[in-house]
Design a protein that fits this description.
The structure holds two protein chains of two kinds. Chain A is mainly alpha-helical. Chain A has helices at 12-23, 27-49, 52-76, 84-107, 122-139, 143-154, 159-165, 170-193. Chain B is mainly alpha-helical. Helices cover 57% and strands 1% of the residues of chain B. Chain B has helices spanning 12-18, 29-37, 54-79, 93-101, 143-181, 189-226, 233-243, 247-258, 261-288, 301-305, and strands at residues 125-126, 132-133. Chain B has a two-stranded antiparallel sheet with strand order 1-2. The chains are: A mainly alpha, B mainly alpha.
């Protein structure tokens, strides 16, 4: 099966129909939704947690949550159409934040995925180093600020859509995004000035 | 750069962020997800409280039940006479009605202390004993009004003195009866008369001291009125209270009033516990040493030292009692 990167959230009627079919345990509809959303969900999860395997687990769990809750979602379509893309992204963000918190409690800190220690060519090593620094920058942001950057910068979602994913009103989201950009820029400047130091916290609480 | 501006892809920060590429999703992802659905446990049923408005209705119902329970408890307390044991004077419905209609403007015993002045009938009236009373309008500013206020204070003071002495006498009687019932030595009638005589002498001595202080203080107040001054109800009450107390008691009560409410309550609680403990110890001591001659029970500190117009319960020390109208 080919996994696409499309997003059907601009087609609420189509989403409603898909959810209704999944509620009736239509495997084909479920596979269709996976094809439409899985890649993007995996990307978001990866940016949030910094690890490919964990990101895949999160994407899978989000899909299974849809399977579990399809009947409930279908029952709500009478009141308001289901925006499947936003719903799935919200689930992924929440799962990622939950896992980060659990990991933080268990290990005492954010640990980006361990770099491959096998000898590499210089160019690849440099590429890995940059990627590690980028992950460290993002990982140093508080949870919701990180989600705001992931959704708007990496996924290029409009602010209104990102606000919907985070279940916030647009003003609150813009304020969050403003703080997130500021924190990221300050972290970047600090990283440039002291590259040997690992950025972790930049003046705000880790969990907003 | 302002934080309102998006992060540019071509900026140094953007280039660094883009350096971290997301690895591709592993093959067979959809199959694994679909396969996992077969071993997935059924989701939990939806919470009942998620229904719109259910929480508010439940809160209203709880509030209503709490109000009904509180009302039932209050009714039960009133019906069983529990309120009689508390220092709360509950006026009868008739008195409340009379107060509202002004037919018998008699003040309640627990009237608040923050009233600006003594209120009385708008005109002179006749007391049941035939004595003509003077109306006090606003602050006291004439000798007649002052004498009337003193008369009312004296009435209350005499009533409380009688009540207090009756309480002490009753406790003495109870103690003696208990000792006789237990077969413990009790004073002979002559010994009891001697003890009561001593107690009466103590009372008279204290009353004389108090009367002298009151007389001096009232002379000062009268002089103030004659010189054109005026007195509010609170000033009068404070002066009378101060005159009726020895300087040591005044100082103690003043320090007690200045304490924070929590600490004051704690002190009073401690005082009651100590009093109870002293009574118990005295009782046990009397039982263990029956040969000793029985002394009359020690009156409560409040009874011995409190002024004539002091409230019966230490909890109401900071609530000055109004003079009768």
């Amino acid at each position: 099966m080919t996994i696409g990167s499309g997003d059907s959230q601009n087609d609420p009627a189509g989403d409603d129909a898909l959810v209704a079919r999944i509620a009736e345990r239509d495997e084909a509809a479920f596979r269709l939704v996976i094809g439409q959303h899985a890649e993007r969900l995996h990307r978001i999860a990866y940016r949030m947690v910094g690890g490919a395997h964990e990101a895949e687990d999160i994407a899978q769990e989000a899909m299974l949550r849809l399977w579990d809750n399809a009947a409930r979602l279908a029952a709500r379509t009478d009141a308001a159409p289901v925006r499947l893309g936003a719903w799935l992204k919200r689930v992924v963000i929440n799962l990622a934040i939950d896992r980060q918190r659990v990991a933080g409690r268990q290990s005492g800190g954010e640990v980006p995925e361990r770099a491959d220690e096998t000898p590499l060519a210089d160019e690849q090593m440099e590429q890995e180093e940059s990627a590690g620094r980028a992950r460290a920058l993002i990982a140093g942001l508080p949870d919701r600020q990180r989600a705001a950057i992931v959704l708007t910068y990496f996924e290029e979602l409009p602010n209104a859509e990102a606000a919907e994913v985070l279940d916030m009103n647009i003003k609150a989201f813009e304020s969050l995004l403003h703080r997130a950009r500021g924190a990221l820029r300050r972290a970047f400047v600090a990283l440039e000035e002291h590259p040997e130091e690992h950025p972790q916290e930049y003046g705000e609480e880790r969990h907003e | 750069m302002s934080d309102d501006n998006p992060i540019g892809r071509s900026s140094a920060l953007g280039e660094l962020l883009d350096a971290d590429r997301v690895p591709a999703l592993s093959g067979g992802f959809a199959d694994r997800v679909v396969g996992a659905t077969s071993t997935r446990a059924a989701p939990l049923p939806e919470l009942r409280r998620s229904k719109a408005g259910a929480g508010r209705r439940q809160n209203l119902r709880r509030f209503g039940m709490a109000a009904i329970a509180a009302g039932a408890l209050a009714s039960a307390a009133a019906a069983t006479g529990l309120l009689d044991d508390l220092p709360i004077a509950l006026p009868s419905p008739g008195k409340v009605w009379d107060t509202l209609t002004g037919q018998t403007p008699e003040p309640l015993a627990t009237q608040g202390a923050n009233q600006p002045s003594i209120r009385a009938p708008a005109s002179a009236s006749i007391e049941p004993d035939g004595e003509e009373t003077v109306a006090i309008e606003g602050p006291i500013d004439t000798p007649e009004e002052l004498d009337e206020a003193f008369r009312r204070v004296d009435n209350v003071r005499d009533e409380r003195k009688t009540t207090r002495r009756g309480n002490v006498d009753r406790r003495i009687e109870e103690t003696l009866e208990r000792r006789r019932e237990q077969g413990l030595p009790a004073p002979t009638p002559e010994g009891e008369a001697r003890l009561r005589n001593r107690l009466e002498q103590m009372r008279e001595r204290r009353d004389q001291q108090s009367v002298q202080r009151i007389k001096e203080r009232r002379a000062e107040l009268r002089k103030k009125i004659e010189e054109g001054g005026e007195l509010t109800r609170d000033e009068l009450i404070a002066a009378e209270r101060a005159a009726g107390q020895s300087p040591e008691v005044q100082d103690r009560l003043q320090r007690l009033r200045e304490l924070p409410p929590e600490e004051r309550r704690a002190r009073l609680r401690q005082w009651r516990e100590n009093r109870q403990q002293r009574r118990e110890e005295r009782r046990q001591g009397l039982q263990q040493s029956p040969a000793q001659e029985t002394e009359p029970p020690e009156p409560e500190p409040a009874e011995l030292e409190a002024p004539l117009d002091a409230p019966e319960d230490p909890q109401t020390l900071d609530e000055p009692s109004p003079p009768p109208k």
